[in-house]
Amino acid sequence: MAKKSDTIANGSVLAREKLMDNRLAFLVGTTPDGRTITENLATTPHILVGGTVGTGKSRFLHSLVCALLKDRSPDEIRFTLFDPKVVEFPQYDGLPHLFCPIVHDARHCVSSLRKLERKMERRLETYACNNCADMNEWNSRQARRRHAVIVAVFDDVSDFLLQRRADVEPIILHLAASGAKAGIHLVLSTTRFGSINIYTDEMLIRFPGRLAFRALTEGDSMRLIGSPEAAALTDMGDAIWREPSGELVCVKAPCLSEEAVEQSVVDAVSRFPRVTRRTTRDASVKPLPDEVLYERAKATILETGRAATSVLQRKLGIGYNDATRLMGLLEDRGAIGPLRGNRPREILKAESLD
After folding, report:
1. pTM of the full predicted structure?
2. In contact, 135 and 181? CB cutoff 8 Å
3. What is 13-252's CATH number, 2.30.29.150, 3.40.50.1820, 3.40.50.300, 3.30.70.940?
């Protein structure tokens, strides 16, 4: 039986020295007695996450992406991000580590999954022809033609399964069965994890790592982690990690602020500059003149009381690069303060926004 978590201060996954030494490690959370629980995609290649709305699922996904992203080039790691609600991953638009543009609709979900599947099959064929067991062995023999790890992160996978199950589910199962050898990993999240139509029995078998935030019912909790205890969780960030061995560990999951996520992306973009691509949602949108966007940005900050790149992306429907440039203009004109680590930007002069 997992012990119920106490409230533990949010720790920045980016600052944990333990994660710096292991490139596929990430922070699962901290136990009530202060132990840090980390996991590794090399040994737990695919993960299922479940929990009701507002329990910390998305923040955990951000911490995982930022931990894997830190200090790694696009030649080392790539991400495919699936965001059907168009609100969880906008700050990653423009990230040079994207394997494909951020996915928002079911049609592009299917095409992006097929692209991942083709990549997996080509890699496995290459390894077989060269007597390599997996990507690690292949990379150990290569000086230049090394393959990057690819991590596909879904928030929320149920939207795609309900719309295009016949196309989406077989590819997910295929990737879960063979993707790890090709360096491809899946992290699936949903609020509907109690339904047999979302996390099917076959899917549960192929995903060894499972993290349950607060469940609506004991039955939902039982389905994901084999225990009713997730239904008794109360605070945001409280979760139960089911290890591949079946052992349950109660943790306070990591919680990164929007500013910390934005800074992580800014660092990656500045360190590994590349020509960036718009998301599938923005591909056909004609850019507005800078001053028009600037005026809209001013109005947005006044309306929300928040000066954040992700806010401008969501409210204005623009990409990460445009939002970052607008934030720079607002800062240059004395309307907002600079980034201050995990703390939000300060709105310095309301009259500068008028």
Report:
1. 0.76
2. yes
3. 3.40.50.300
